[in-house]
Amino acid sequence: MAHLRAQSYHFLFFFLAIAIASAQLSPSFYDKSCPGAFRSIRSAVYAAVLKEHRMGASLLRLHFHDCFVNGCDGSVLLDDTPTFTGEKTAAPNNNSIRGFEVIDTIKSNLEAICPQVVSCADILAIAARDSVVALGGPTWTVQLGRRDATTASFSDANSNIPKPTSDLSTLISDFSNKGLSATDLIALSGAHTIGQARCTTFRTRIYNETNIETSLATSLQSNCPSTGGDDKLSPLDAFTPNSFDNYYYKNLVNSKGLLHSDQQLYSGGSTDSQVTGYSSDLSKFYADFKAAMINMGNISPLTGTSGEIRKNCRKTN
Ligand code: HEM
Ligand SMILES: *[C@@H]1O[C@H](CO)[C@@H](O)[C@H](O)[C@H]1NC(C)=O
Ligand SMILES: *[C@@H]1O[C@H](CO)[C@@H](O)[C@H](O)[C@H]1NC(C)=O
Where is this site: Transition state stabilizer (predicted)? Predict the structure, then answer.
């Protein structure tokens, strides 16, 4: 009897330890140490999005590209140094990711009210949420307590960030490799309801693919030549590019996805029904998007005494 009881205490401690280890992030992490953090970040994000709507899209994407490369650890923000090549010039990021000046402004505002408290990785997670809200999307409670990496990986950015040329099976396994489900993949791809893409990322689709609506392909070709003009921009959602709605999915159902990878989500495969569902049920999309953002934000955070709290998001302390 006594032996059994001792054993059940062991089990209790074991499960408690697991619960603590997997729940290290918390929404109240800065409640005492930086109660003004949310308000400060939100006002900078709203100002930036008011100035340029696209900035909301760019900030959301920064969090994604941070999380998919060795976890949500602020690594994407590190500048190259003479002895170190960061992630900014890796193929998915070079001449593409943006918003670093907004993150710098947020960080310097926070350093003025609570020095070296709020991590750059958490700033990205909060700015992503505030950006979605600023463009008319849903809100959610952001988990916090991530710390910042002291390294970044050019090669992992090249290999871990999903490619616009990928087919559905590859996209599903890219997400699965990060602990995210196919449901998360479809819901998170709804982020492409805002923002822009460069000609180089969709040229083959608009000239050579057959599952694209003809009039959309023709109109996109006028701003994306078959050679040259790599950096010319078109909206990922041609209809409501500055509004966080479900037009992304309505587009897919009508063969109006911009990227090859977008249209793959609705191309006769296992994910068609989820796309159709979101195209006709905005609140279902919002509910799943919120849950998927929290899942993505939980990818391998640095916590406890790992990593550091950077003073400047562009460099290690
Ligand atoms: C499913 C795999 C994904 C692929 C293959 C992909 C690929 C791309 C590509 C090629 C662009 C255009 C980049 C450029 O031309 O400079 C882009 C833009 C964007 N992506 Fe994704 N993406 C994916 C998932 C996501 C996710 C999960 C999010 C966020 C939750 C996201 C958010 C965005 C946003 C907001 C933009 C527009 C950025 C801006 O205008 O600055 N993407 N994506
Ligand atoms: C990044 O883009 C710049 C400007 O187009 C180019 O000169 C540079 O070679 C690119 N870097 C890498 C690593 O591809
Ligand atoms: C379209 O396909 C043809 C034939 O394979 C190829 O020569 C051409 O470069 C492709 N065009 C684009 C824009 O990808």
Answer: 61
